[in-house]
Amino acid sequence: MFGLSAATIAGYLAAIVVLMVTPGPDMMFVLANAARYGRRAGVVAACGVAVGETVHVAAVVGGLATLVSTSPALFTAIRWAGAAYLVVLGVRALRGAGGPGTADAAGGGRGRSAFLRGVITNLLNPKMILFSVAFLPQFVDPAGGDVTVQLVLLGALFVAVQLAVDIALGVGAGRLAERMTDGRWSRRINRICAVAFVALGIRLAAG
């Protein structure tokens, strides 16, 4: 299909699954939003992350990602910006109430905020840049047809699978938060995600 064999696609999907079982900023962000504001906010956050991933894929196709990854100064700037953003998210989550959200809280301004922060969280993740540059091309077969078409297909598959996983996570965590009316579960998940954000930010800053 589009120059990619069934075996290549199967191996690619298997590799994606392995990558997704490792928690990262995107997964923590979706989980934190769902636990605090409900399943709708989790889904909106997942959509924001997917948009960020789409930008990364487009950058690979356009060659921009390669330029960023080969420029130490630019890559370091993005790494530090991403680290600072994660720490800020963690501190804000720790200072928040952490209670389950209402339908109104999940919509309107909360929804727009979750979407935009999801986009930013993904775009400022330098690991996504490295993934885009180093991972996607490994599954391209130059002899199999148009390389650009293959990259677009591989990127679309990744975004689709990631979106499905994040939405499932957001809906599941949101439902649990809505059932736990006393708010204890939401507060615990919120604190865990907050600490994870800060830890990921410090690790990212340390290189």
Automatic annotation (TrEMBL):
InterPro entries: LeuE-type. The chain crosses the membrane at residues 6-31, 43-67, 73-94, 115-139, 151-177, 189-206. This is LysE family transporter. It is a multi-pass membrane protein. The keyword Cell membrane applies. It comes from the Bacteria. Keywords: Cell membrane, Membrane, Transmembrane, Transmembrane helix. It is found in: Cell membrane. The keyword Zinc does not apply.
